[in-house]
Amino acid sequence: MRKAKLLALVVVATMLVGTASIKVTQAAEGTGSAALTGTVSSQADGPMEGVLVGAKRDGSTISTWVVSNAQGQYSFPRDRMEPGRYAIGIRAVGYELPATSADVKGDATRLDLPLTKITRAMKIATQMSNGELIMSAPGTPQQRASLGACVNCHSLQRVFFSHFDPLEMSIVAARMPRHTNNSSPMHPWFRPQEGPLPVITEPTSQGRYLSSINLSATDTFQFPLKTLPRPKGKATQVIYTVYELPRPDASPHDVAFDADGNAWYSDFNSQYFGKLDVKTGKVVEYSPPLRRTGQVAQGGLQIDLDKQGRVYYGNMSQLQIVRLDPKTGKMETFQLPTPENTWGDGHLTMIDPAHMDVDGQLWFNIAFDTGESGGTWRVDLAKNKWTPMTYPKGSPPARAYDVVADSQNNAWGMQMTNDKLWKTDAKTLQTTWYDFPTKGAGCRRGHMDSQDRLWCGVFNGNRLAMFDTKTLIFTEWTVPTEWTRPYDAQYDDRAYAWTAGMDNDLAVRLNVATGEFTQYLLPHETNVRHVEVQKSGPLSSLWLGDQHGNTLTKIEPLAP
Fold first, then answer.
1. In terms of Cα–Cα distance, which of 359, 357, 351 is closest to 427?
2. pLDDT (tens digit, 9 = 90+) per residue, 259-307?
3. pLDDT tens by residue, 68-119
4. Tell me, what's the pLDDT at 26?
5. Can you tell me the distance from the alpha carbon of 3 to that of 246, in angstroms, rounded to the nearest whole number?
6. At CA 319, angle to CA 318 and CA 325, rounded to 5?
7. Partner of 397 at 20 to 30 A CA spacing, among 28, 82, 167, 358?
8. SS3 content of the chain, % helix, strand, coil (to 5)
């Protein structure tokens, strides 16, 4: 699952079964500036709308994807394809394309893509997103919701296609929570042990449920498969650029941009962060020093830049802030000053240097903790002064997952199981709580816009939320597709708010004025934890890191 997911990943419906005998001809007149164009069709359906078509030039780490329109036509712009030989792949659940390539030259090239419809349900299941598998699974809402925890570390393919019986699955399910949230099959980090694993001699309810939906007792799934419709209309008017990172185990979590347009990314489960040249695809990686060695988890979560262009990296279980000055190459680490025996399972996750220029203070957060050092902090790095936030007795919960700074460098906290947002005043350190209008779920992560409005993803409520910090008014929008689970949200300061989630491989754009949603199917299975909006150009674009794979993806809409 860690290899580049252009053509080989099972969820991309290419299923290479041999080289196709496909006629490649010069494109007809009227293709304009297209370098490669054609029609996607199947014998069963005729021309097909909403099929993602990808092209990757031999030797390149960059692939480009487009989507077929209502007439089944796809087209790659000439400025996105240099002359060369390209491997061609598709994403369309329930269909496959034999191994296909095209020689792109100076003139426009036509390549029609005849797809084969898959009839075997088990083969279709290998192409389905996590969200589609959850929607297909039988069980109570609580049982189906429990599947959402699995995708923290791996796709649901591992669960559904497993063969563990109820007892075996019970043992596996008991072990899974001992892994950190930044674990993966390649890096199965464990939380600090709090005693031995329980001895399980009888199946648990969770083990029975999981084994009831896997292949432990049958060769086929005993429930109908539910798939989402292919993109249509405006959702087909988009170009994707997928950048493959050099390490197969790369796990990009957050993305941030410097003044030169380079994309900086954090690695969630390895001790790296990196810089991507978006024009050439060249990657430079940096490895911060380890403070804690052994089985203690490595990797980081948020990455961001201050107004001087310095890069900040929240180095999770290492409990340190890393700062890099790209101009000089100087890397510094700032370590939490509390004793290690107070850390518990603390992860230094979120940092926000956006408005450090106001007062020299950097806000950061320690989450997932069982120790005494967790919670929201601020630090004056120049003075090495660290201040934990405290709250009066009887205050509402204020253990944040994300902490975001406004233009006055006040801190705003949020947590997906908390019905409140809260503000800590930068001058007085007094905290005020604000109630969400819809109860039962809070925001997981968010961004502050240029008007000091906080946009965030209501993860468990399948909504976006915006809180105007001046009028103190909440506005919420429900995302159209089940199991999007918006993780984060950001406004482009013009017209659109963007989000994405961990399950159904959709990037979602909201027209704030009209309430119109446009949902862009991603080229491959993508576990999204953070969204970063690139605001330049006539329309804003979205950047996503794939926490389950070694790619960064840019989504560029072509229509407002």
1. 359
2. 999 999 999 999 999 999 999 999 999 999 998 887 688 999 999 999 9
3. 999 999 999 999 999 999 999 999 999 999 999 999 998 889 999 999 999 9
4. 36
5. 10
6. 85
7. 358
8. 10, 35, 50
Q: Which of 323, 312, 320, 351 is nearest to 336 (CA)?
A: 320
Instruction: Check: CB of residue 409 under 8 Å from CB of residue 306.
Output: no
CB 220 within 8 Å of CB 120: no
pTM: 0.93
Burial label, 159 (beta-carbon count in 10 A; 0-12, 13-18, 19+): buried
Residue 177 dihedral angles phi and psi, to the nearest 5°: -65, -15
Which string of DSSP letters, residue by residue, matches 249-306?
A: T--EEEEEE-TT-PEEEEESSSS-EEEE-TTT--EEEE-PPPSS-TTS------EEE-
Structure tokens at 476: 């919420």
β-strands 320-325, 311-315 pairing = antiparallel
Q: Is the torsion defined by CA of 372, 373, 377, 378 positive or negative?
A: positive
What is the Cα–Cα distance from 555 to 542, expressed in whole angstroms? 5
Architecture of 1-128+232-236 per CATH? Answer: Sandwich (2.60)
Q: Identify the residue whose tokens are 């890099």.
A: 324
In the chain, CATH 2.130.10.10 sits at 246-536
C-alpha to C-alpha distance for 47 and 115, rounded to whole angstroms: 10
**Rg, C-alpha atoms of the chain:** 24
Measured distance CA(456)–CA(101) in Å, rounded: 42
Please return the burial class of 218, using the count of CB atoms within 10 Å of its CB with bins 0-12, 13-18 and 19+.
exposed
34-42 and 113-117 as β-strands: parallel, antiparallel, unpaired? parallel
Tens-digit pLDDT profile for residues 281-290: 999 999 999 9
User: In whole angstroms, what is the distance from residue 147 CA to residue 386 CA?
Assistant: 39
Third-level CATH fold of 246-536: Methylamine Dehydrogenase; Chain H (2.130.10)
C-alpha to C-alpha distance for 207 and 186, rounded to whole angstroms? 24
HSE value, Cβ hemisphere, 13 Å, CA-based, for 560: 9
d(CA 442, CA 450): 23
Residue 193: per-residue pLDDT: 64
Summarize pLDDT for 210-248 with one digit per residue, the tens.
Answer: 999 999 999 999 999 999 999 999 999 999 999 999 999
Per-residue confidence (pLDDT) for residue 194, from 0 to 100: 64
**166 Rama class: left (phi>0) / alpha (psi -120 to 50) / beta:** alpha
What residue spans in the chain does CATH classification 2.60.40.10 cover?
1-128+232-236
Helical axes 166-175 vs 205-212, angle rounded to 10°: 120
Neighbour order of strands in the sheet with 486-491: 486-491, 496-501, 506-511, 517-521
Residue 143 has pLDDT above 80, yes or no: yes
